[in-house]
Amino acid sequence: MTTAKKKIVFCDFDGTITVNDNIVAIIKHFKPAGWEELVQKTISTEISIKEGVGSLFRLLPASMEKEVVEFGIQNAKIRDGFAQFVSYCKQEQIEFYVTSGGIDFFVYPILAAFDIDEHHIYCNKSDFSRERIEILWPYPCDEQCDNDCGMCKPTVMRQFPADEYERIIIGDSVTDFEGAKLADRVFSRSHLTEKCRELGIAHTEFDTFYDIIEAMKQKG
Question: In the predicted model, what is the mean pLDDT of the chain?
Fold first, then answer.
């Protein structure tokens, strides 16, 4: 008799839980010189996520901490159905983790309203104590990943073995590509949908979290 695998969700933050990408929105808003080329190189994977995001924030002086933090929090718009999805996961005893390439100064305050255990939120950290804003990387790639992810989603996912867990990833962008390759089920939008098509990875497209709830109810 085989025991059913335990469902576990790894959900991206920027452009997934939020409607927009906060990192790009912050940089676009403050427009430091040279930002456009760095964003393009990161999205096209010409440079790693860690290098790209670290370099983007280094364009901003740490003296702008108050303005940057306030904009990062106030600019975010939560995708429809997210609160209901968190409740659905609790009700169905599905473990829910936020795996975010975002930064602590906006991720934690924005998620505070949703009763998510802080230990279930993985994101990058920030340091405003130097001349420029520095991003810190507490969740680096393990020996099985050489993508220089910054916050390495596959490394987090590997803590939950495939023989015990049905690993479900929800995401939209370049930070989710490697995780999608490991997942049993992928909910995608935007760049992640394009990448799944390109790589032949089975995926379910979504617009709101209500779509995901319906799809998960149907499959059981």
Answer: 95
Distance from C-alpha of 147 to C-alpha of 134, rounded to nearest angstrom? 20
Taking Cα atoms as reference points, which of 139, 169, 133 lies closest to residue 155? Answer: 139
- The three-point CA angle 52-58-59 to 5° equals 95
DSSP state of 89: H
DSSP one-letter code for 206: -
CA separation for the pair 187, 43 (Å, rounded):
19
Residue 132 placed within a domain: yes
Considering the entire predicted model, what is its pTM?
0.93
93 assigned to some structural domain: yes
Number of domains the chain contains? 1
45 SS3 class: coil
Give the CATH number for residue 139: 3.40.50.1000
Q: What is the pLDDT of residues 6-46, one digit of tens each?
A: 999 999 999 999 999 899 999 999 999 999 999 999 888 89
Q: What is the domain range of residue 88?
A: 6-219
Inside any domain, residue 1:
no
